[in-house]
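User: Can you write out an input/output pair for a complex, sequences first and structure second?

Assistant: Here is one pair. Inputs:
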Amino acid sequence: MNSIVILNTLVIIGILISAFLTVKFDNLLSSIIALSITGSFVALEFMLLHAPDVAIAEAAVGAVLSPVIFIITLKKVKEGKEE
Amino acid sequence: MSNNRKVKDVIVKTAADLFTPIALVLGFYIILHGHLSPGGGFQGGVLVASAVILIYLGYGYSEVSKRFNMEFIKKNEALGAILFTVFGLAGILYGSVFFTNVFVGIGNVGDLISSGTIMFMNDSVGYKVLTGVGFLILLMIGLLAPDNEN
Amino acid sequence: MKRFAIAFSLVVFLLMGSYAMYYSSTLDRTYSGTKLSEVLKPEQNYDLEKPDGVANIMIRENLKRTRAVNAVTAVVFDYRGYDTLGESFILLTAIAGSVVILKSNKKGSDTNVK
């Protein structure tokens, strides 16, 4: 068994677990953090598949930008609910 | 409790001070070397724009709104789009079709200034994405500002 | 005067665009000045039976034609320039739409307070 194959399998298992947790969590903030972890694992998998262009884009957009926008939206929605 | 809050503030501010130059330098490197190394305009632009988030986390909205001029950034995004179209139109001025690579003979393979209009198009798209995504983040952050209310 | 200038520039753009469309439809299909049939001439180099004949050109003759080391950027900005143009204008439109929504929301809350 090749070491690359083992690393690929571990990363894919990480993608599956974090994607499952994204759907499973009741707290929305925890769900967003799990989505960010999913983005990081997907970027690592792209790196293992020799696609560094897509890996950089995925790491910037999927792991940083979209969770920040989701968190800002979540905070804004909660503010409106309290008033 | 207030003491604990202060320690957290110092930690976040130090991390922002440390990581903002790294994000800026890596983003500009990826934009400028888009035709030589992995990456391109879009990836580098998003990386540079994420530095705005780091500055906001470290120093709050008052500092961010003092440093960045939103009208100027919005106009510069349109400037980036116009530059990209002008480099596409250079093919027509050269006497060929739209999006022809014009100055392809300049420079050797692997130089920074080589590969004709690919490099200039890459830079203009990077500038456009940098200003556009940065403006989007500034707009979203402005919704959370406490002094906007009342 | 302003409306006349807008109408005049639109008419000029329409005429020039229609002439450019007509003129480019009469040209041969070329890439960087050489005809596409000339590019595909040494047939032993390319597997023309498979549908990826143009992909072979992009990969094997990339350095000679564009001098860009990163082949992905060469494809995105040179061979598929129209795609990138549309993509970047999609981003411009999305940001303009979010500006309209968020700015109007803020102004409405201000008038409500007053």
